[in-house]
Design a protein that fits this description.
By secondary structure, the protein is an alpha+beta fold. It has 11 helices and 11 strands. The chain has helices at residues 2-5, 10-22, 27-34, 38-50, 74-83, 89-103, 110-133, 146-151, 154-157, 187-212, 233-250, and strands at residues 25-26, 54-57, 69-72, 139-145, 163-169, 172-180, 220-222, 225-230, 254-258, 271-272, 297-299.
């Protein structure tokens, strides 16, 4: 591995760590995250595949050609594992095992792969928006995918969000769980997910007591919204009729938005399910950072991998 490591740049290493979390990225997504053009990204990816730290595949399409898709190879996973000398043997083994699993993404069904890529598109769009803002302290404070959330323990195994994110912009901030919908699930199942989030809420106080006891070593972070991202207005309208009563019953802050490929999730696309228009008119949508504060705030363990708010956090937006 040493012979390979000396050929890797800091950007290469960032990309390997990112793939360990996001699992699969296309040439276009990698270009948006780390390069100035798809051409330069393609050239560097060819080098990394040659070094055997990445594997690649190109799904078949009936019309046109798909971009190249990249996943972490076992050697790349070994590089990622070596980045943190404090990792336990069990954690190292998990990284290597997951890399072998990710290689099988070339064989999974198109809907499942498309779902993973859609969630990663959301991440890439926020990353691009943060780059345009170019303001210290603003942008994507944190992002954790389904894989990392599962590692947090039983608290996050009670439900399966696609990701957890924390966004800041223009003095506002919103933490959120993302549910990325491609129209493959029944609408009833979408509302049932909210009962699972409610179960999560019932567990969080117990989790806090187990982790902290009486020790005051935590800081607050915003209560997350649950954001449902849809690909069509019709799907969103139909889903909202199911989500609204379920959200009110569960006491959750839930919003929906329609995001076509390439759309910016930081824009005013989010509509809380409890929203009603003025005098029967169309209710206003919110930017991601402009969503009202969720119903409450709570604390988490510093030792957990959920990012915590720096000192000076003011919960009054």
């Amino acid at each position: 591995m040493r012979s390979v490591s000396r050929h890797l740049t800091a950007r290469d290493r960032r990309l390997l760590v990112l793939l360990a979390e996001l699992r699969v990225l296309t040439t276009w997504q990698i270009a948006a995250l780390e390069f100035t053009s798809p051409i330069s990204a393609r050239h560097r990816m060819k080098v990394l595949v040659g070094l055997k730290v990445l594997d690649c595949f190109q799904p078949r399409r009936e019309l046109g050609s798909a971009p190249m898709h990249y996943v972490l190879a076992p050697l790349g996973a070994a590089v990622v594992a070596a980045e943190d000398p404090d990792r336990t043997p069990e954690e190292v083994a998990k990284i290597l095992r997951r890399a072998r699993s990710d290689q099988a993404l070339a064989l999974v069904s198109e809907p499942k792969l498309a779902h993973s890529l859609g969630v990663n598109d959301f991440y890439c769009a926020l990353h691009a928006r943060a780059s345009r803002l170019n303001v210290v302290g603003e942008g994507l404070v944190a992002w954790q995918g389904e894989r990392t959330l599962r590692d947090l323990g039983d608290l996050y195994r009670s439900f399966r969000p696609d990701s957890w994110g924390w966004w800041r912009e223009g003095g506002g901030q919103t933490a959120f769980f993302l549910e990325y919908d491609r129209g493959t699930e029944q609408l009833k199942r979408l509302s049932e997910k909210l009962s699972e989030y409610r179960f999560f809420q019932s567990l969080r106080d117990d989790h806090w007591r187990q982790q902290h006891g009486d020790q005051d070593e935590t800081v607050p972070w915003p209560e997350p919204w649950v954001l449902f991202c849809f690909l069509s207005e019709q799907r969103e309208r139909n889903a909202r009729t199911h989500l609204r009563p379920a959200a009110l019953a569960a006491g959750l802050s839930v919003a929906t938005g329609v995001l076509a490929p390439g759309a910016d999730p930081g824009e005013a696309v989010w509509l809380p399910v409890a929203a009603a228009g003025i005098s029967g008119g169309t209710p206003a949508r919110f930017t991601l950072a402009g969503l009202p504060p969720a119903r409450s705030a709570y604390t988490v363990d510093r030792r957990s991998r959920v990012p915590v708010e720096p000192e000076g956090f003011d919960d009054d937006r």
